[in-house]
Amino acid sequence: MSKNLPRLLRALWREGLSASYEAPVWRVSIRDSDGPPAEVLLPDDLPVESAALRQLANMAAAQHPTAKPVCKVCASPDFHPGDSGIAIGTVVQTEDMIIPAAVGTDINCGMRLHVADVSLERFLSIKRDFVEGLKGDYFLGTRDVTATANAMRAMFAGGIPGWLLAQQEKPLGLMARADLSQLERELDRIHLGGSLAGDPAWAPEDLVPNEGVVRDGGLGTIGGGNHFVEVQQVEEILDRPQAWAWGVSAGSLAFMIHSGSRNVGKRVGGYWKDQAVASWPRGLRHLPSKIFPLSWRSDPDLANAYLQAEATAANYAFVNRMLLAEMLRQRLRSLLGEVEAPLVYDLPHNISLKEGDRWVARKGACPAHRGQPVIIPGSMGSASYLLVGEGEERWLSSASHGAGRAISRFEMGRIPKDKLGLAGVDCITLKEERRVEEAPAAYKPIASVIAAQVQQGTVRTVAKLRPILTFKA
User: Fold this and answer.
1) DSSP helix/strand/coil, 88
2) Residues contacting residue 103 through CB under 8 Å, at least 6 positions apart
3) What pLDDT was estimated at residue 8?
4) Which terminus of the chain has a smaller tally of CB atoms within 10 A, N or C?
5) 358 by DSSP, 3-state: which?
6) What pTM, to 2 d.p., does this model score?
7) Phi and psi dihedrals of 203, rounded to 5?
């Protein structure tokens, strides 16, 4: 980067941006804006894209005529341009604004990690049947996540606790075979207890009838893009006391889940993108960035309504990840007998949260508060990491949600097959294009992404995990 740095800085200046780079931190802002300079943690061995820097500067300059400017904006090392105009890896702190675009439509997309006291050899002995069973569950419609109308309403209103309480009345399908007491015990290993203050009124009408049974085609599904379910092995323990406290040991089997709110989030996020535009003060020109905040000062009811709608979709995502994990856990038990496979942690990386007296919205970045588990996956051909947050204020107690794309999905189709990095990768999918789009070559080197954050004191490594096989929808 150092060789091309002057040229890049000049190009950004011509675009109206003020930028500087002092390794490993970029600072960028729109000239003459009221917002603070945004900071990006990006060591010089990782690529930087001017489009992403402009998107981040736009977020720092976001404003509402009745609200205070943005307090702080930063980004994690998986930083890259977002299709919606918001850079992936963005974290924004506000005082009296809520910015729906800062979360987008994949509300409460997040990571979930389980470990199982199963050796790799034992798993490989049942791998074929395991894969065939989960291919049916994840891709071919053999899963059964039927639920009562009451359970669906309880889920949208209160997330996993509401869902589990309703299951005690009439568990159906997958939940009739689940260990409900274990799922209840695992609530304290889910960020926010897997529950936000939602309202079924924001859910799609066909998912919340007054009575009867609901068969939702989205609940318990992985989703496309970079979402996955991956079986891994704990390859190395890097912090023994912390790993022991979380029940993680070297050689154990692990499974990691990356999924979100599916069509519910798409519906809620899309609706509020339009509402934010419609609520913009009449006669005031639209911002060039097309980022439209909601103001607590001029319309607190609207801001509260958005947060309730976001919470409703977030609750769906919490339950979605839990069900994906439960399908896998039940397949393991059907083939190996009683396997506990406890939850290590579940955390979001697309969500707005009140932290202290301010709001923090993260898009493609996860909370990393002091002592909190952090899960950062690599590609399906590289290591993933379990870490512990350090609560670093400079980076708004946040960490990356992955390695970050280095090459777009479209460009991946032009790369020769022998350069994709797929040698030795076991990817279970029904779509060959998904294997190519998500090949290891598409992503930044995870080791550099992790090292940069460790050096900045945002996280500390606990365990390193290597992929065994990955399910991609």
Assistant:
1) strand
2) 269, 310, 350, 351, 352, 361, 362, 363
3) 87
4) N
5) strand
6) 0.97
7) -85, 155
